Amino acid sequence: MIIHVTDQAGENHELEGLEGWRVMEVIRDWGLNIKAECGGALSCATCHVYVDAAWMDAVGAPSDEEEDMLDSVGDVRSNSRLSCQILMSDALDGLKVTLAASAAKE
Question: Is CATH 3.10.20.30 correct for 2-103?
Fold first, then answer.
């Protein structure tokens, strides 16, 4: 399965992911600029991404806990999600996301 990721510099990347992996894990393991400090424990917002509008329904809405974490970043948008909370599946093959500035390693 493929994820299309636009990094903070506007460069597009086509990454191969595996079913059941968190989108954050795929992005991190391919070496893109994502902090992902908590490793998927939903205790930070350093894997913040913007989901392409065409994929919002397939990805679904964030949980209340995820929304609370997203409230801690200044660049949140209506299509913001934490990539650690999106699990790869056949339904998300071709997913398009953009890394938020708040997710960048310093």
Answer: yes
